[in-house]
């Protein structure tokens, strides 16, 4: 079985409780600390087995193989990946059966993370997530006042909802570039400054 570690909680004696997003489920598993265990961390993609026991309500993680990506040797990219991946657990924690979409989304992002701007990859992935969940924002009206959006004064708030800059008190972005992100999941037309603005918005949560 393969999955991404989207939450890592340390418990007594350096044991771990892990939330692992697999192709179909969000698994909560226990991992005992041991000197022979390889290092695993948030965001790692692993191949693993689950051992179930009548003595515990959660399964035990064992026979772990780390499925690494070359960019994990780049500390800056790795830090951004940890930040991005950590957003998934609060969003999915109430769902045991997740289907294949979220796993595939992370896998596709991981494969592009080393060759493209990671923040752009993350924003495009999130736009795909919003579309998949039926949460694509209204691109014609302000989230706050519900009046029409003026192209000269549009900004994006949490969940990439559109708003007037005066209503949200945020920096404006190019509406055409924002539309391309949401309609076609492409961050191509966003400037680096706009990418940083939307990355900060993304960090507010899914």
From TrEMBL:
It comes from the Bacteria. This is Recombination protein RecO. The lineage of its organism: Bacteria, Pseudomonadati, Campylobacterota, Epsilonproteobacteria, Campylobacterales. NCBIfam families: PRK13908.1 (NF010483). It holds the Pfam family RecO_N_2. Residues 1-71 form the DNA replication/recombination mediator RecO N-terminal domain. InterPro entries: DNA_rep/recomb_RecO_N. It comes from Sulfurimonas diazotrophicus.
């Amino acid at each position: 079985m393969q999955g991404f570690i989207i939450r890592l909680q340390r418990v007594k004696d350096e044991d771990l409780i892990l939330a692992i997003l697999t192709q179909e489920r969000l698994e909560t598993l226990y991992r005992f600390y041991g000197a022979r265990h390889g290092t695993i961390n948030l965001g790692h993609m692993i191949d693993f087995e689950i051992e179930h026991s009548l003595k515990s309500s959660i399964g035990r993680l064992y026979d772990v193989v780390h499925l690494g990506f070359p960019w994990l040797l780049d500390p800056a990219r790795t830090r951004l990946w940890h930040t991005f991946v950590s957003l998934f657990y609060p969003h999915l924690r109430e769902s045991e059966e997740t289907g294949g979409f979220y796993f595939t989304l992370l896998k596709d992002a991981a494969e592009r993370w080393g060759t493209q701007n990671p923040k752009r990859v993350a924003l495009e992935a999130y736009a795909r997530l919003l579309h998949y969940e039926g949460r694509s924002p209204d691109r014609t009206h302000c989230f706050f006042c519900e009046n029409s959006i003026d192209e000269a004064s549009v900004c994006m708030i949490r969940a990439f909802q559109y708003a007037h800059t005066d209503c949200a008190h945020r920096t404006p972005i190019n509406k055409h570039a924002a539309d391309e992100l949401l309609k076609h999941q492409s961050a191509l037309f966003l400037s680096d400054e706009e990418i940083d603005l939307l990355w900060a918005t993304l960090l507010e949560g899914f």
